[in-house]
Amino acid sequence: MKRNVLLLFILFSYLLACSAGPVAAKPSITADTTYYDVDTGLYLLKGNVRVEVGSRIITAGQAKVSLSSMEVWGSDGITLTQDTIYLTADSVYVYGTQHKAVLSGGVTLSQPDITITADTADYNWRTKLGTFTGNVQVTQGTNTWSADSVTYNTKTGTLE
């Protein structure tokens, strides 16, 4: 069991490393239940899933993790907070080898100067670009507008 938790620590710290530099802090992962399914090769985390790495906190109702393909499926209310970024979605699929995450269902990104809502979002943590699509609403200061798609750079805080 301790070995399984250690492997999850390592995987989550790699897959969810969306900050500019390497992760210095040891990740902490908790869930109400953790189970390894030998038949599928998936770790199953259920109930109050929480991953904390430095200033980054990710929560979900449940998650599945594949160490072999470096993929994570999370659902039931995804949240990510880090510094001034606050992100929510119904679900997330992380392609670890591609450094990409796909969020869907009521996606909202909030920072002090901008809020973006959309049906879906793709985020590449190498480029720091998030592309929001479907019913996109952007609020900056007192201005609000709609778009089919917007791309936001989380490093520079600019729309591209």
Automatic annotation (TrEMBL):
Q: Where is the Organic solvent tolerance-like N-terminal domain?
A: 115-155
The entry's keywords:
Signal
Give start-end of the signal peptide: 1-25
| Protein name as catalogued | LPS-assembly protein LptD
Species annotation:
Sporomusa silvacetica DSM 10669
Q: Which gene encodes it?
A: lptD_2
